Amino acid sequence: MKRYLANHVANMPPSGIRKFFDLVATMKDVISLGVGEPDFVTPWTVRESGIFSLEQGQTMYTSNAGLFELREELAHHLNVTMGLSYDPLKEILITTGASEAVDLVMRAVLEPGNIVLVPDPSYVSYGPCATLAGANVRYVPTHAEENFRLRVKDLTQAYSPEVKLLVLSYPNNPTGAIMQREDLLPIAEFVKEHDLLVLADDIYSDLTYEGTHTSFASLPDMHDRTLFVSGFSKSYAMTGWRIGYVAGHPDLISGMTKIHQYTMLCAPITGQIAALEALRSASEAKDEMVAAYDRRRRLMVHGFRSMGLDCFEPLGAFYVFPDISKTKLSSEAFAEELLKEEKVAVVPGTAFGPSGEGFIRCSYAYSLEQLEEALQRIGRFVERRFSL
Amino acid sequence: MLTPEDRKLLKIIAKDCRYTPEELSLQTGLSAEYIKKRIKDWDKEKIIAGYQPVINWERTGEEKVSALIEVRVLPQRGYGFDKIAKRLQKFPEIKSLMLMSGGYDLALLIEGKTMQDVALFVAEKLAPLEHIQSTATHFVLRRYKQDGVELMGEEETLQRLVISP
To answer: Is B156 on the interface with A (CB under 8 A)?
Structure first.
């Protein structure tokens, strides 16, 4: 039946992670560092509010844009934590996970012929979403020696007049890189000069381990040019609830709301109610999770460096991105052989773009005991490669 | 006042005191020397008052009985409740001792091998003490949570995907 598939879907390459997933699924007793979601369960107070809402029979649709109470609380939260100012009535749209928000941004603003600039390496969805919106993608390399921060020189090289949208996703998955205010300011200049829009995917913003996160939307003149995307999955360990949001200029939000109302109608109500509770009463639980990630992060960086590998210090998200090129293996070969020999699953850097070659992504959303065991196994593997 | 680093350190130890200073150093970025010194200070200042695991005795099958005892006390001039509390805290049978607001004054958590043990302790040692007006003993039937640790049921097993983007 393949001939029925639309060409642009048939030609879309499968996720680089998929092949690996299938391989891991056939093996037993694997320690996986391959998961991009928290290992914590959603804080109890949040779960409890979801349960209570079900008991009360709150099982209906909400308005397309989402519960007004949630949008209001969110506007307040964004203002207090990042100095952002959004009108909950017209400038915030609650989505089914941040993933839907990414898709909506792309579909609302892109047309055939447009080009989207995406930092490389980065999360796997941006490219395919742009393609589905009829646009083309151009990857902008980032480099380990620059701590994987996006630089204007690389943007300039990638730029052409067809470019309409720039994706910024910091703290970054897979590298763990962050962009601080002084790193973002020149990008803002570039955006202004070329009259671009920015999709700022700030989903990992709460997981910043040094200084505080600066949102691109908070920079001078960037409020209207930025579509601020985030969600509850990473901060509050709520991946399965599927609640995200996008905030931005009312003209753009109303365009996205049109697509959302025809394709999704609204985000799940139970998740929205739980998200409201998360904003109101789970900040302490969130801080505790962040503190736990930070401890693991230090352990991981030290672990890889002690093996003799280069590992830049990730200051955000929950990934380390060690350089495995000294083992003379490609990213994919490293991941495959590590899995076969030591039963540890990591994700090859190339799953996140060509600049990921020579690196592997290791998630530290696992217990300290699991991480220590995994580091030991990887250490043995690396030592054997070094002695070849 | 605790510094943010010290607060972080204490919070880790409060949950699990088995980490060595070297391990704590790896996790926090503080030097092992500094950590050793801080813990020593806290031991001395009784900020860290003890190092005890949370044991779920019910699972061991050992015979053990505990009771919560409400005690009304006549406060002593110049000392309030402190003098009697100081005396009570010496009894090894008393595991916790707290001054309460409300209908009674002191709350005691007592542990013994049998109900008889506990009853004897209350009747012979506690009740006859000077200044103690009355006691009310409530036996613990089952312990569900202790010191922040859930004792009931199996641990929640997370069914996460093995690999996800």
So the answer is: yes
- Could A41 and B27 be called an inter-chain contact, meaning their C-beta atoms sit closer than 8 Å? no
Q: Give dist(CA A201, CA A222) in Å, integer.
A: 14
**Domains of chain A, CATH where assigned:** 2-42+284-386 (3.90.1150.10), 44-281 (3.40.640.10)
Using DSSP's 3-state secondary structure scheme, residue A106 falls into: helix
Return the HEC string of A268-308.
Answer: CHHHHHHHHHHHHHCHHHHHHHHHHHHHHHHHHHHHHHHCC
The answer to whether A25 contacts B28, with C-beta atoms less than 8 Å apart, is: no
What does each of the 388 residues of chain A score in pLDDT, given as a tens digit? 999 999 989 998 888 787 778 888 888 889 999 999 999 999 999 999 999 999 999 999 999 999 999 999 999 999 999 999 999 999 999 999 999 999 999 999 999 999 999 999 999 999 999 999 999 999 999 999 999 999 999 999 999 999 999 999 999 999 999 999 999 999 999 999 999 999 999 999 999 999 999 999 999 999 999 999 999 999 999 999 999 999 999 999 999 999 999 999 999 999 999 999 999 999 999 999 999 999 999 999 999 999 999 999 999 999 999 999 999 999 999 999 999 999 999 999 999 999 999 999 999 999 999 999 999 999 999 999 998 7
Burial of A181 (0-12, 13-18, 19+ CB in 10 A): middle
**Domain architecture of chain B: domains with CATH:** 4-44 (1.10.10), 57-142 (3.30.70.920)
* A96/B contact by beta carbon, under 8 A: no
Contacts with B164 from chain A: Cβ below 8 Å: 17, 34-37
pTM: 0.91
Which residue in B11, B12, B164 is closest to A37 by CB distance?
B164
CB contact under 8 A, A34 and B163: yes
Helical segments of A26-67, H only: 44-55
Number of Cβ pairs < 8 A linking chain A and chain B = 53
